[in-house]
Amino acid sequence: MIILNNLKNLLPTSNTITNCIRNASKKTSGSTKNPKNPHGRPKHRGWKRQDGSTVTYGTILATQTKPRFFPGLNVGFGRNGTVYAMTNGKVYVTCEKVDLNWDHGWIQRFFSGRSGQTIYKKYFNVIPENQHTRFRLVDEN
Fold it and tell me: Which of 24, 50, 53, 103 has the largest CB neighbor count within 10 A?
């Protein structure tokens, strides 16, 4: 009995077994609601070839979501707005007055409030390296 009383004096008053908290050894993987970049990877849209650069057939000159760049001489226009070269040659970028087709859906969507204004846009042109020599000099005397 005396030994039990001495042991009781050595032990703390609260029960140590009930004070132990066991945490989970493996946590579940949760999703974050605030990621670093919520929009994914950048798309790198815009000019791909500058004025004066030499390009080959099919080279992408510019990518866009809105109609900022228009196709000129020897340049194609893709379904997603990509402007690409249709021949080998040199790129020339000009700023020209646009005559828009107001019946087109893209034009109505992006230029809806500007129907009476003069609109200037950048045109991509590709001038072929080897131009044809089918002209002949005609004397008009």
Answer: 53
